[in-house]
């Protein structure tokens, strides 16, 4: 990949009125641009207060300018930040002035792209920048920070080392087609392969939690029509988002809200009521409910506790209710004198609430946190993968199995080597760089076995 170093500039804060706006510059002409604007190039990393004057000498704003000397900058090149008053008009004028002084408008993500191209961060860290910006819960933020600090890259290293070791064993024999891979080398390579496969599977298993961190724990609210599902969602979310109505079966479309429960982001989905004898339109909603339930992580079954009838649950839903991921919410407790109700579902915990008055909602939140905690991963190891990583790992796993099969069938070593190189490439997609030098070192280290 070529390494552009032309000088780019952009507004780094959202367009709009605020206390401050920040503009960023990076590239080979940064020093010259800074010198032109500030009169001198200030010492690196020291904010300098100055009057920003346009090329025509007109005062645009008083600003703070900080110069970062490459390679000790975000992008690895000379870079600068200008903080001005958060007036979009001022920010735009300064940006136009920077462009008139030879900067080019930066494209989306171009600063982080430079950081990657200049070797400051790997690709998984570049993605983590976005994860940090978009994190919506403590856990998601902790995970994003781990990734930003190279957590996934570090997990990939031993895997790549193993792969290189396996490749090195094999590559030696490629130049000598008459020689078969000795049995002990075959065993060794197979060992490497199974270790790599294990690590790949472990990483792939983090994919679901990764999506939970980004999108929230999928929690479906189920219950008979009028049990108070929408009211409960509103109460939990703290707004009147869902349509609350005294007429049964009104929530035919899904209402989804994200809310923070303790350190977790929860994606709450209100579903159509589970009416046992539904009208045709309702039937559609119920089918969709079942679809949603199939993807859910947690279940809240809302029961109208003022009615004597037990909750109606279709068998396909009941089978999904497990003590660690389901709760019975006995709603309308304000209408109930004595709480002598038998457990609705014997193995599932139940919480008394009133969506109307708010009584019991804190207990419900704690119970949800409890389930989410059990669901979540160890907070000290929050390395998870995203869809792109999963795709690459899936490819790697396939090629690895192919290599294993070929080795076992004693097919020519170059075919095995070609599969393993494919694995290396697939793994390389995750960090965006497999250190070619490291690979050569390992290869040459085995070359000198006297052949
Ligand atoms: P859904 O069909 O399950 O979504 O039920 P809704 O949330 O639309 O509520 C149905 C009716 O029950 C509405 O009239 C609500 O005001 C009422 N309701 C909901 N929760 C409570 C509660 O905790 N106490 C009382 N007394 N009424 C409630």
Assign the CATH class of the largest domain.
Alpha Beta
- The beta-strand count equals 12
CATH topology of the largest domain: Rossmann fold
SSE string, helix = H, strand = E? EEHEEEHEHHHHHHEHEEHEHEEHHHH
The tally of helices reads 15
Task: For the record, give the distance between the C-alpha atoms at the N and C termini, rounded to a whole number.
Answer: 36 Å
Structural class: alpha/beta
Oligomer type: single chain
- Major sheet: order of its strands? 3-4-5-2-1-6
Secondary structure: helix percent:
40-55%
* Unreliable residue runs: 243-247, 440-451
How would you summarize the topology of this molecule?
Blueprint: E1 8-11, E2 20-26, H1 30-38, E3 48-53, E4 59-68, E5 79-85, H2 88-100, E6 104-105, H3 110-117, H4 123-134, H5 138-148, H6 151-174, H7 183-204, H8 207-215, E7 217-223, H9 229-237, E8 255-261, E9 264-270, H10 280-295, E10 298-304, H11 315-318, E11 326-331, E12 350-352, H12 361-375, H13 387-408, H14 413-431, H15 436-447
Parallel strand pairs: 1-6, 7-9, 7-10, 10-11, 11-12
Antiparallel strand pairs: 1-2, 2-5, 3-4, 4-5, 8-9
Helix pairs in contact: 4-5, 6-7, 6-14, 6-15, 7-13, 13-14
The site of guanosine-5'-diphosphate has 20 residues, from helix 9.
């Amino acid at each position: 990949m070529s390494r552009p170093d032309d000088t780019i500039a952009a507004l780094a804060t959202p367009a709009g009125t605020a206390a401050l706006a920040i503009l960023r510059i990076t590239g080979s002409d940064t020093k010259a641009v800074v010198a032109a604007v500030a009169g001198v190039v200030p010492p690196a990393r020291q904010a300098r207060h100055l009057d920003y004057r346009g090329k025509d000498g007109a005062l645009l704003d008083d600003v703070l300018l900080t110069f970062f000397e490459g390679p000790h900058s975000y992008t690895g090149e000379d870079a600068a930040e200008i903080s001005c008053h958060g007036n979009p008009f001022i920010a735009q004028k300064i940006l136009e002035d920077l462009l008139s002084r030879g900067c080019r408008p930066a494209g989306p993500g171009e600063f982080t792209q430079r950081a990657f191209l200049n070797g400051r961060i790997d690709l998984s860290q570049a993605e983590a920048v976005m994860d940090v910006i978009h994190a919506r819960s403590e856990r998601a933020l902790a995970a994003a920070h781990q990734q930003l600090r190279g957590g996934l890259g570090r997990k990939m290293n031993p895997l790549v080392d193993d792969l290189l070791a396996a490749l090195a064993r094999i590559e030696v024999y490629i130049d000598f087609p008459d020689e078969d891979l000795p049995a002990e080398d075959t065993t060794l390579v197979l060992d490497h392969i199974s270790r790599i496969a294990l690590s790949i599977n472990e990483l792939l298993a983090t994919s679901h939690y990764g999506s939970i961190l980004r999108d929230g724990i999928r929690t479906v609210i189920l219950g008979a029509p009028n049990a108070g599902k929408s009211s409960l969602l509103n109460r939990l979310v703290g707004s009147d988002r869902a349509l609350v109505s005294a007429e049964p079966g009104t929530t035919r479309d899904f209402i989804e809200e994200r809310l923070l429960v303790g350190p977790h982001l929860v994606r709450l989905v209100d579903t159509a009521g589970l009416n046992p004898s539904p009208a045709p339109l309702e039937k559609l909603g119920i089918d969709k409910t079942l679809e949603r339930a199939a993807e859910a992580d947690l279940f809240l079954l809302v029961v109208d506790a003022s009615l004597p009838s037990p909750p109606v649950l279709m068998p396909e839903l009941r089978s999904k209710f497990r003590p660690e991921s389901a709760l019975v919410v006995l709603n309308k407790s304000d209408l109930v004198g004595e709480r002598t109700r038998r457990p609705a579902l014997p193995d599932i915990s139940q919480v008394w609430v009133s969506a109307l008055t708010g009584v019991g909602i804190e207990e419900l939140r704690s119970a949800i946190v409890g389930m989410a905690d059990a669901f979540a991963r160890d907070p000290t190891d929050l390395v998870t993968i995203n869809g792109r990583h999963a795709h690459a790992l899936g490819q790697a796993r396939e090629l690895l199995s192919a290599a294993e099969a070929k080795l076992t069938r004693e097919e020519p070593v170059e075919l095995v080597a070609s599969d393993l190189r494919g694995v290396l490439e697939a793994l390389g997609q995750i960090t965006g760089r497999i250190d070619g030098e490291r690979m050569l070192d390992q290869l040459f280290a085995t070359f000198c076995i006297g052949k």
